[in-house]
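#lab-general

N.A. 3:47 PM
ok so I finally got the sequence cleaned up, no stray characters, all 183 residues accounted for. can someone with queue access submit it? mine expired

B.Y. 3:52 PM
send it over

N.A. 3:53 PM
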Amino acid sequence: MELIKTGIKDLYIIKTKVFEDKRGWFTESYSAKKFKDKGININFVQDNHSLSKKKGVLRGLHFQLNPKAQIKLVRCTSGKIYDVAVDLRDGSPTYKEWYGLELSTKNKKQLLIPKGFAHGFLTLSNNAEVQYKVDEYYAPDYDRSIKFDDPEINVDWEIEEPILSDKDKNAPLLKDSDCNFIY
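B.Y. 4:20 PM
back already:
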């Protein structure tokens, strides 16, 4: 397993070793031991899996408030997405900065997103499946979102009219949210 820094503290790209032959390929997508060997000790408690049927679906930017904030390990297991994490930790040197990368079946990369970040993704293909592990159970009372096109954050999604849920269409701007992350 390779741990790649992104330029935002605690946000990492994960590359696993892939074994290929004429039959196909195999990878160990997660190993607690290998993470621990790299200094990352996370107790994941829930796996989530979504399917977005159409190219252009944008999900996000989502997070859970403290004390139910989540670490996420995100991967795309079918198709491809543009995955984005936004640092919402007030006082962080990278506060309101975002990082994005393509995750796909082909590149098999994963993004390890720490607590204190919002997360979202844009589907770059039809039938994109995303799976992610979290270290805290889903808690509806702590579930929040911020507007995907918040000008204070200015994520470059490279799409004019994404397909959005009502929740994401009506999400508040960061300045109007009750985000409670402190660096």
